[in-house]
Amino acid sequence: MKAFILISLQERTERNVLSELKSYPQVKNAYILFGEWDIIIEVDISNSEELGTFVLNNIRSRNDVRLTSSLIVAAK
After folding, report:
1. With CB atoms counted within 10 Å of each terminal CB, which end of the chain scores lower, N or C?
2. CB atoms closer than 10 angstroms to residue 44
3. pLDDT tens-digit profile of 6-16?
4. Which segments of 1-76 does DSSP mark as H helices, in order?
5. What is the CATH number of the domain that holds 53?
6. How high is the mean pLDDT of the chain?
7. DSSP letter (8 states) at residue 25
8. What is the residue range of 47's domain?
């Protein structure tokens, strides 16, 4: 299953967060953005339960993350 995760940060630490997120095998692409969201990552993950666990354990648990939004791809 493919999904995109939008990440808004508390502080301007985009480069550090991006580098750390790229180290996870589930993360296929990651980009710094302009605008309301600071980072977008593309993940390839088994199912929605695994996606939830990944987001909670690896992203939302960070002190520098303010908000996330997960977008599951419906069709290509």
Report:
1. C
2. 13
3. 999 998 889 99
4. 14-22, 48-55
5. 3.30.70.920
6. 96
7. T
8. 2-72
Amino acid identity, residue 57? N
Encoded tokens for 69? 């939004």
Domain count, the chain: 1
- Note whether 54 and 41 are within 8 A (CB): no
User: How far, in Å, CA of 47 to CA of 70, rounded?
Assistant: 13
CB count in 10 Å sphere of residue 12: 10
| Nearest by Cα to 39 from 19, 54, 53 | 19
Rounded Cα distance between 44 and 5, Å, is 11
pLDDT (average), residues 39-48: 98
Chain-centre distance for alpha carbon 46: 16
pLDDT for position 20: 96
